Amino acid sequence: MTRPGWWRENRFWLPAVPLALAALLAATSYNVRDHWYDEGLRHELATASPGESVRVTDDYEDALGETKRRFSVRLERLQEADTYPYDLEDGPPPEGTRVVKAVLAWSADPDQVLQGCTVALVDGQGRRYERVDSFSQGNMCVRYGHEGPDAPAAEGDVRGTVEEGAERPPTWTTRSSFLVPDGVRITQVLVWWERPDYVALSVS
Amino acid sequence: MRAPRAASTLAIVAALAVGHAVTNRLNVTGLESPAFVRSADLAQVAHLSYADVEVTDVRPAQYLAPPVSDDLAVKAGGVWLLVSLTATATREPTLLVDGRLVDEEGRVYRSSTRSGCAFVTHTYTGLPNHSVFCFDVPTDVLAGLHFVIARGDLDNARLAGDDLAEVDLGISRSEAASWARTTKAYNAESEDLAPIELQEITLNQVGS
To answer: Taking all residues of chain B, what is their mean pLDDT, rounded to a whole number?
Structure first.
C-alpha cells in the first residue's frame, strides 16, 4: 500500500478527505442549533456599564414574519427589600435568602412590542437567578396596565396595535424582585425575550 | 497487481460489513443511550450536573385528601406512596419534568394525575424547593422501589447522555408488607419553598 507514487496517485482525493469529514459533521449536527444553541442565552445583543443606558435592536419573528424591537434600557440600581411578591401575597424571604430588586429605566417608541420578557440576575460565578413564582413572569419589562402593544397573534393583525388604556409612556421604570441566597454577589442583570439573544447590564 | 486489488476489495467489503453492523446491530440513534445515573439513598443528596436532589421522606397512605377541602378523598387502587423531594438548581432554574418509580422488575410507575400532588418540580438556583410526588402502586411491588427524576423527558431521547437521579427508597420486605395494609390518610401536597410537613388526617364519611 505504501508503494512509491501512491501519494502522488491520490493527490487530488486526499485534500477532499478533511472536507468530506467536515461535511459529514455538519450534516449530522443539524440538531445542535435547535436543541442546544437556541435553548440557552448564548448571543449577547448588547451590554452596558453600570448606570449606562444601552440602545438595543432585537431581531425576532412574530406571527406576521421577521421584525425588530428597539428600546433603550439602563440598570438604575439594585436594592434590597424586606418582602418578596409571591403569587398570592407579599411575604418574607425563606431562611438563608434575601430579596434583591433590579430597578430598570426604559425608553422605547409606543409601537414597540416589549411584553413577555424575562429579567434575571447573575452572580460572580455565572449562576442565574430568576423569579420563583409562576404567574407574574410574563411582563417584567413593562408596567402593569401600561404594557403597550401585544405581539400580533395571527395574519391580519396589525403590528403595534395598542389596547385602549394600555398605552405606554415614552419612558418608564420597572422593579423586579428576586430571591438570592445570602452571601451571593450579583454582578449582572440580564434581559431577554427569545433565546439565545440577551442584553447584559453590569452591576459593578 | 492482482493481490493488491483483492486486498482492496476485501477491505471495502469489510468496511461495508462493519458499517452495516454499526447501523443495524448497535443502538447509535440516541434513543437507547443511557443517562448518567447518579445513585443515592433516602436522605442522601444526588449531585446532578444541574441540580442537587434529595428524597427526604417516603411513606404510604390509603387515602389522599385533595387540596380543595370540599372534594372527596382519593383512595389508592393499590397503595399511595408519598415521595418528598428537595431540589436545588446549581447553575440556572431548571424544571424537573418527570418523577417516576421503578420496581425490582424494571417496571415504571408514573406519578398519579388524580392525586393532587406534584407531577413536575421547579428548581431555583441556590434555593431549595420542596415537593411531594404521589404514586398509586400495586401493593406487592413496594420492596426495593427506586425513585428516578431528571430534567429531560424520560420518554424521549433528550435524556440521553444527561444526568438522572436514581434514589433507592430503602423499603424492606417487612416494611413493604405493613405498608401494603396502611389505612392512613394525608393531605395531598405539591411544591413549596417552605419545607412541607405532611399532615395525617382523619376522614369523615359523607352522604349515606
So the answer is: 89
Question: CA-based Rg of chain B, rounded to a whole angstrom?
Answer: 23
Average pLDDT for B133-150: 96
Contact A81, A99 (CB under 8 A): yes
pLDDT at position B75, please? 95
CA distance B7 to B62: 72
In the numeric block, which cell numbers belong to residue A65?
A: 414574519
How big is chain B, counted in residues? 208
Residue A48 lies in a domain: yes
Q: Decide if B127 and A181 are in contact by the 8 Å CB cutoff.
A: yes
Neighbours of B76 (CB within 10 A): 22
Q: Sheet containing B98-102: which strands, arranged edge to edge?
A: B36-41, B163-168, B146-150, B98-102, B108-110
Q: Give the residue on B whose Cα is nearest the Cα of A28.
A: B29
Q: Quick check: is A193 in a domain?
A: yes
Domain contains A56 = yes
Say yes or no: domain B35-192 is CATH 3.40.1550.10: no
Q: By the 8 A CB rule, do B135 and B83 touch? A: yes
Unique residue bearing C-alpha cell 409606543: A110
**DSSP at B75:** E
A165 min Cα distance to partner chain B (Å) = 35
3-state secondary structure of B128: coil
Its domain, for residue A64, covers 43-202
